[in-house]
TrEMBL record:
This is TetR family transcriptional regulator. GO terms for molecular function: DNA-binding transcription factor activity; transcription cis-regulatory region binding. Keywords: DNA-binding, Transcription, Transcription regulation. Residues 14-73 form the HTH tetR-type domain. Residues 36-55 bind DNA. It holds the Pfam family TetR_C_33.
Length: 210
């Protein structure tokens, strides 16, 4: 699902970078990654050389969009966790659903966030934003471990399985594959909740058997 986004008006002094990112994101979400800096400049209402004042290449501009996407994902999951209350189970389900819905609402940005990078410098910038967003889920695991409801393990390692789950569900929902091939928002939520509740059981502390 693509949100309606207004066409960016010509930038005001000091806001060129933001206008370029907004214009590029609008093109990306409507037409995919085959955008050009010239098209971005035209949409932003600036000269075709203006983008180079902030971005050395298209890849650098796309990286800025990916970083913005990770910041938005972090905000969405952090907000969902806060609204879920102190229970680690509720936090995990809430953050998982927020993650999935973000990807479904912004499919092209989501693909860009987890797509290949062109240079090491660009890659590191995006990865840093990704690690920060992943930290929300790590925090949920830390909470559950401290409360004794999740298996005591390294929280970063423990957060990988829930992340892999929600990432996989998001990809299937975006690409409409598997059980999500022809489903709407409510069905995605139903499948996601079922998967997350199953994941919770796998996170429980293990009891030793004799």
């Amino acid at each position: 699902m693509i949100e309606n986004r207004e066409v960016v008006k010509p930038y005001h002094h000091g806001h060129l970078r933001e206008a370029l990112i907004e214009s590029a994101r609008d093109i990306l979400e409507r037409e995919g990654r085959d955008l050009t800096l010239r098209a971005v400049a035209k949409r932003a209402g600036v000269s075709h050389t203006a983008p180079y004042k902030h971005f050395q290449s298209k890849d650098a501009l796309l990286a800025a969009i990916a970083v913005q996407g990770f910041h938005e994902l972090e905000y969405a999951t952090r907000t969902a966790r806060a609204e879920a209350g102190p229970c680690a189970d509720d936090q995990l389900v809430a953050t998982g659903l927020a993650y999935i819905f973000f990807g479904v609402q912004h499919p092209e940005v989501y693909r860009l966030m987890f797509g290949p990078r062109q240079t090491d410098a660009v890659s590191e910038t995006v990865q840093a934003a990704g690690r920060s967003a992943f930290g929300v889920l790590v925090g949920v695991l830390e909470n559950g471990i401290e409360a004794g409801v999740f298996n005591p393990t390294d929280p970063t390692t423990g957060a990988f399985a829930p992340w892999a789950l929600v990432h996989g569900v998001t990809q299937m929902a975006i690409d409409r594959t598997g059980p999500l091939a022809a489903t709407g928002h409510s069905a995605v939520e139903r499948y996601a909740r079922a998967a997350l509740f199953s994941m919770l059981e796998g996170l429980r502390p293990r009891t030793e058997t004799t």
